[in-house]
Write a structure and sequence with these properties.
about 40% helix, single chain, Aspartate Aminotransferase, domain 1, 7-stranded mixed sheet, binds pyridoxal-5'-phosphate, Aspartate Aminotransferase, domain 2, about 15% strand, 4-stranded antiparallel sheet
Length: about 375
């Protein structure tokens, strides 16, 4: 096995050899199997804890009745709904099997051997994966220091200083996962203005709906000002559709045309298209989800503060908290039936990321953590 493993590894392209598989949050069924537990809560993958919205679920069910047919490869209805939502032309939209799919399209189109992508330390794990898989070099800018007003956040100036003639893509997650940190309007605008024309700026807004009361921009409003801007959004987080896989990007139609040349012809399935269209229209579900999340996030922050733990600023639906021996704490939480996300792979070995759940889930997490830390 090991011999075959290394033999095949030699056959693989260079970028793939340097990669590790993405480590998702532990599925509940896996914990059930491994630990024999039945009462489990999952706060590991930044999903919407409320379950899907009723109208989205009904739309997916209805679409399932015609699953013997291929989906609409051009996503006509969903693109028009998204276009109206953002006030852009449908030609600006690229649909994806999750926004992850669109991030991979960016790499496929603009990266490759001899090219470079720039992103921050502690940034979303998919950026290095798509960069290296495309055979390009990753340039990682040190994050802001612990003393900064936005500890561990993107240092846009450090990122700018890594840009050279070979750079083709820069990834900005706003807010970022797993830190929860964000960049403010003026800073991001100055950054975009400073970019050379040969660099595509990807602003990943997977969590932007949660960012109330911050000075975080809506980058989709800058699409006409910056033709090299690609903004990605997802239905996986606030819209509660992680399992269906639905995301999209907004960018200049000339760039979208390039994505369209390489994407799989049917890269968003018919249930996902139908549910996403319904979810976009369900503004009550979105508003209630934001209110629940942000109220609970501040409650949880207070509890973690009271335990004397270091918590990063977050404009998203999770908190990143320093627990010391994160592997041991994680193990303790798993034994208590609570799945969170260790983030050692993100260069944060002493931290865990916990998704904001329903009130009773958050209470259970705090109680389990108290027990483990001996703070009862
Ligand atoms: C969850 C997440 C996404 C969305 O992934 P999907 O493929 O749309 O499910 C994108 N970017 C970041 C930073 C995320 O955390």
């Amino acid at each position: 096995m090991t011999e075959l493993r290394s033999a095949f590894e030699q056959l693989a392209v260079e970028g793939v050899r340097s990669l590790q598989p993405y480590e998702p949050g532990k599925p509940m069924e896996e914990l059930q199997r491994e630990y024999g537990l039945t009462d489990i809560i999952k706060l590991a993958s930044n999903e919407n804890p409320r379950g899907p919205g009723e109208s989205a679920l009904a739309a997916a069910r209805e679409a399932a009745a015609t699953m013997h047919r291929y989906p609409d490869g051009n996503g006509f209805r969903l693109k028009h709904a998204i276009a109206t939502h953002h006030g852009v032309a449908p030609e600006a939209i690229t649909l994806g099997n999750g926004s992850n799919d669109v991030l991979a399209l960016v790499a496929q189109v603009f990266l490759g051997p001899g090219r470079e992508a720039v992103f921050s330390e502690h940034a979303f794990a998919v950026y290095p994966i798509v960069t290296l898989a495309a055979g390009a070099q990753a340039r990682v800018a040190p994050a802001l220091g612990p003393e900064s007003g936005m500890p561990r956040g993107h240092d846009l100036e450090a990122m700018l200083s890594l840009i050279n003639d070979d750079t083709r893509v820069v990834f900005v997650a706003n807010p970022n996962n797993p830190t929860g940190t964000w960049v403010e309007r003026e800073a991001l605008k100055t950054f975009l203005q400073s970019l050379p024309e040969h660099v595509i700026a990807v602003v990943d807004e997977a969590y932007c709906e949660y960012a109330e009361d911050t000075r975080m921009p809506d980058a989709t409003q800058w699409l006409s000002a910056f033709p090299n801007l690609v903004v990605t959004r997802t239905f996986s987080k606030i819209h509660g559709l992680s399992g269906l896989r639905a995301g999209y990007s907004l960018c200049h139609p000339a760039v979208a045309d390039l994505f369209n040349r390489v994407r799989q012809p049917f890269n968003m399935n018919s249930c996902a298209q139908a549910a996403a269209e319904a979810a976009l229209a369900d503004t009550d579900y979105v508003r209630e989800s934001v209110t629940l999340n942000n109220t609970q996030r501040e409650w949880l922050r207070g509890e973690l503060d009271a335990l004397g733990l270091d918590v990063l600023p977050s404009a998203a639906n999770f908190l990143c908290v320093r627990v010391g021996d994160a592997a041991a704490v994680n193990e303790g939480l798993l034994r208590a039936g609570v799945i969170v996300r260790p983030v050692a792979g993100y260069g944060l070995p002493e931290w865990i990321r916990v998704t904001i759940g329903l009130p009773q889930e958050n209470q259970r997490f705090v109680q389990a953590l108290r027990n483990i830390l001996g703070k009862d």
